[in-house]
Design brief:
Layout (H helix, E strand, L loop, with lengths): L1 H22 L1 H15 L8 H41 L2 H24 L11 E7 L4 H20 L3 E9 L5 E9 L3 H5 L4 E8 L8 E12 L14 E6 L7 H5 L3 E6 L4 E5 L5 H24 L18 E6 L5 E4 L5 E2 L2 H5 L4 H11 L4 H4 L5
Parallel strand pairs: 4-9
Antiparallel strand pairs: 1-3, 1-5, 2-3, 4-5, 6-7, 7-8, 9-10, 10-11
Helix pairs in contact: 1-2, 1-3, 1-4, 2-3, 3-4
Length: 376
């Protein structure tokens, strides 16, 4: 029992060490002191938006710092209790304290992964776009499967998903769709999912039951708040209105309520068919465009040279980030981190945390062995 307790303690110590490193512990505690001082300043509350931003940052940092401190106290208490119980031969107390230690190890891993969500916009909600690659019905069906996968992942985490725009496929599936995912750290979790996703399966649309390879791309960018100023020159915009396709009610299909903005300098496109009102769709599409422009600048500041165009690369061979193989064997493999899962059905039903955690860890230079376990 002593050896098992020491092994758990080593795991927790390693996670805490990584936690402190990811948080830049000294800088985090200094910043928390600064934020606590700002909250005590009555003048802060004259600006509701700024007060809200400060309180959100303070709450995030306080949760991380206090989470580490509480974990260290709890582990020390459990180890001390085990030592006393062993001296007295109290097996029941030893078992209870060991169970606590196992729980603390799980909590340490969860905190370790959450510490990676420290980017400028990680706490924000997210827009997620899915686009079918070349291949007609096969690719469009795959795009719809991907969209469902992310919606199921969001539901598992208690996030809200709002469909902003969708273009139906000719026979099945979708050509494209955009959803807004709302919840704590939605963008932080989803941001590493941008890229091309490859599916290998026996085609349900082929009478000869041949194996087919399909591609679809995913692009993720943060929802921005009103505090962030993004200037859009009207001269740089091409505006199109169109009728919404697919289900949506007679009013949507009979009027040109859909709005599409194309930002000419960057080629960024933002569209909305979410509302029956063209005026409202225009506002939603502009919010999405500003979010895309903000994300573009954010990527530049983060110096991630290849990720800026993640949603714009050719949707095919050589650009994929993950492969989902259903035939002749079953395997989902992330080509960036080498994380593999032998149960594609579970992955396609939203079991994505391990892939996301490993990609987050890779972004900050941590190894998979250090920080790739799924947050629970």
């Amino acid at each position: 029992m002593r050896a098992e307790a020491e092994s758990l303690n080593e795991q927790i110590t390693a996670s805490v060490s990584l936690l402190r490193r990811h948080l830049d512990w000294d800088a985090a505690t200094r910043r928390l002191e600064e934020l606590n001082a700002r909250v005590e300043d009555p003048s802060l509350w004259n600006d509701a938006a700024e007060a809200g931003r400060v309180m959100r940052e303070r709450g995030r940092l306080a949760g991380q710092v206090e989470g580490v401190r509480k974990l260290e106290r709890d582990v020390a208490d459990a180890l001390g209790l085990i030592e006393l119980a062993e001296a007295e031969g109290d097996e029941d107390t030893i078992k209870a304290a060991m169970a606590d230690l196992e729980g603390f190890a799980t909590e340490a891993k969860r905190l370790e992964i959450e510490s990676l969500l420290s980017g400028e916009a990680d706490a924000n909600d997210a827009y997620l776009e899915v686009n079918a690659g070349a291949g007609g019905t096969e690719a469009q069906d795959w795009a719809q499967m991907l969209l469902r996968m992310y919606m199921r992942w969001a539901e598992r985490r208690g996030y809200k998903v709002t469909l902003t725009e969708q273009s139906e496929g000719e026979q099945a599936g979708i050509k494209s769709a955009t959803v807004q995912v709302s919840g704590p750290n939605a963008y932080g979790w989803l941001k590493t999912e941008s890229g091309v996703h490859r599916l290998v399966r026996i085609s349900p649309f082929d009478a000869a039951a041949r194996r087919q390879t399909s591609f679809a791309s995913v692009y993720v960018y943060p929802v921005i708040d009103d505090k962030i100023e993004i200037e859009v020159n009207p001269a740089d915009l091409k505006t199109d209105t169109f009728r919404a396709s697919g289900a949506g009610g007679q009013h949507v299909n009979k009027t040109e309520s859909g709005v599409r903005f194309t930002h000419i300098p960057t080629g960024i496109v933002a569209a909305s068919t979410q509302d029956r009102s063209q005026h409202r769709n225009r506002a939603i599409a502009m919010e999405m465009l500003k979010a895309r422009l903000y994300e573009l600048e954010l990527r530049k500041r983060e110096a991630i040279s290849d990720a800026v165009e993640a949603g714009k690369t050719d949707i095919g061979w050589g650009h994929q980030i993950r492969s989902y193989v259903l035939q002749p064997y079953q395997m989902v493999k992330d080509l960036r981190t080498s994380v593999e899962k032998g149960n594609p059905d579970a992955v396609l039903d939203g079991d994505l945390d391990e892939f996301m955690a490993a990609a987050l860890a890779q972004r900050v230079g941590a190894t998979r062995s250090e920080a790739s376990a799924a947050a629970r």
